[in-house]
Design brief:
The complex is a heterodimer.
Chain A: H1 2-19, H2 22-44, H3 54-57, H4 64-90, H5 95-117, H6 121-139, H7 145-175, H8 184-189, H9 196-214, H10 222-229, H11 232-259, H12 263-285, H13 291-311, H14 317-345, H15 356-359, H16 361-375, H17 381-395, H18 402-424, H19 444-458, H20 462-472
Helix pairs in contact in A: 1-2, 1-5, 2-4, 2-5, 4-5, 4-11, 4-14, 4-19, 4-20, 5-6, 5-11, 6-7, 6-11, 7-9, 7-10, 9-11, 10-11, 10-13, 11-14, 12-13, 12-18, 13-14, 14-16, 14-17, 14-19, 14-20, 16-18, 16-19, 17-19
Chain B: H1 2-18, H2 22-43, H3 49-77, H4 90-113, H5 120-139, H6 143-163, H7 170-198
Amino acid sequence: MISIVLFLPILFGLISLIVKNRMVNRIALVGTATVYILITVAQWLNIQWYILPNWLISYFQFDSIGIFFFSVMTIVFASVSVYSLFYFKAHNLNANQESIYTIEILLFVTAMTGVILSTHLALLWVFVEATTLTSAILIYFEKKKSSLEAAWKYVFICSIGIALAFVGIILLSIGSRSINSLYFNDLYNRATEINPFWLKVSFAFIFVGLGTKIGIAPIHAWLPDAHSEAPSPVSALLSGTLLNSALLGLIRVQEILIRAHLESFSNFLFLLTGFLSIMVSAVFMLRLKNYKRMLAYSSIENMGIIFIGISLGKFGVFAVMLHILAHSLSKASLFLTSGNILHLYKSKKIDDVNGLLKKDPRTGWLWIASTLAIIGMPPFPVFLSKFLIVKALWLSGMSWLAIPFFIFLIIITFGMGGTVFKMAFGEISSEQPAEQRLGFSAYAPQLVLLFILLIIGINMPQQMLTLLNNAAGFFH
Amino acid sequence: MSNIIIILLGTSMLYVFAASRIEAYVKILALQGTLLFLLVVVDIKEINWLNIAFLIVETLIIKTIVIPYFLLKVIRKNEIGREIEPYISQFYSVLIASAIFMFGFVAAFWAAKTNAGIKPLYFGISIVLIVSSLFLIVNRKRIITHILCYMMLENGIFLLSLSVANEMPMLVNIGVLLDLFVGIFLFVIFFNKIQEMYDGNHIDVLTELKD
């Protein structure tokens, strides 16, 4: 199973690169997504079979939290692969460009799968770095000046960050000399043997390194640029899955500190940067002129919320998992819809977009519904997860922090909601053509994502609840 | 013997602070690769020939020959001016460099006292390499110097990993090397594009995206 997940996308990618045929590209993208869905379902039903070569088998594994992150990634990836069909058509890509896009997406997804499945800290690092390299070309895909700038900043800032994370890993191996292994299981089981000083120092480095990838303030500089300049389906993948996979790495390292009873140190870092991220996002949200950048800042905000949840330890961990799921799906839906808007108006400026509901009611309503989902209106699950995080603040005796938390969230809701409603309502300017319709694949993925969110929010299926609980049970 | 090599590595970093021409940076990069290669040859008492072969390929072929040659070609092709153009004047740079070295030596002394089992001089100098290349990245305007300093940062990390006796598994080593290689490749591609599109190679030209 794992070998399928890891090698099939590469195989499909190579085929599409060699053949350079439009049909093959589409089959490669949607086919891989289908296989991923099948494997996710098989994992849920606990069907396991391994045909990995022996020397690889100890490096990759589906554990409880891995299955959860893999499921989230699969849902987002499937919706992105369907939406890509619209992207191909709308941008009139030639077969060659389509192939490059396809192989890059597939390699990117493989790299993220590697991050999720790694059972070895240094191997996880390798895959995190690989996600940077594979997604950089995607960010530069539209070959504009601004996208080049974004791609450069992304590659360079993230490479430096990741290099620092590697320093952290080396320092950890100094501290864990008696263990002499970087497998997570060994580190967890013998966490108390690790020298606390080296563990703390190495955590600080890994935190900065992976935090750069997660886009947490104050090291978020690349995130708004990359998210706004990448093609919309790629932005959805970046926000919905890339941030998560780096986050999973950090969660796995945090678990070492929990087992070594040093979590008070790491929790403080999580809490501080979490609040800083919400603050940064609230400050910028009110003065943004570009709606894709607005969504990027919203990602920073949500990562901040997740960090706050992680810092609350066992009180917040279920809420964190729920928030990760809900944020990924809603944000993917928003970014995909923003691709529709970009196609309709040919502009990323908020001021240029008016009367979306008149121009294309479907896009307009999707835009509004997805925004309601991300700012946490009931019955969407973001409401539930934010509520649970505030409850966790209470339970862990830091109820006063709920005040700044709510203030920042209100500012963000106000900024984002105001912008979105301004774009959705109003009259379309006369020189623009009236109502337009885009293809089926421009609406279907978002509809499915919102539908899943509604189901989770209104009546969570038992299967989903088990998945979330299992993932939350990862923390000791 | 290995101590002399490490001191030479440190000195090479000091030279980078004082150097004012970009080609000197590339030469230093190649020199550092050679020194790391010598260090591996002198120091490693490894029995596993596969690991040794890998380390030799990494240091001698990739770090000493391929990447510097590649970067030199880019520099010559793009006819980049020779000056490195720092934000802070050369004099203060060297002053800061001595502070970083002092910090490195303190770290080395401290590492010698703890019984964590690290080689003190390796540890100190690798910290010097890492911190000073980070400083140089912040302090230089030209994009190509950023790539060069990133490579020096990687050399520092390589030295740090040598200071720990724990071996990384082969798979990880290969992954690290591959990432480094693709990273540099990508940097150069984007660098060429920036050169083409912006008609300049200062970091100051990249200011289109902001809030």
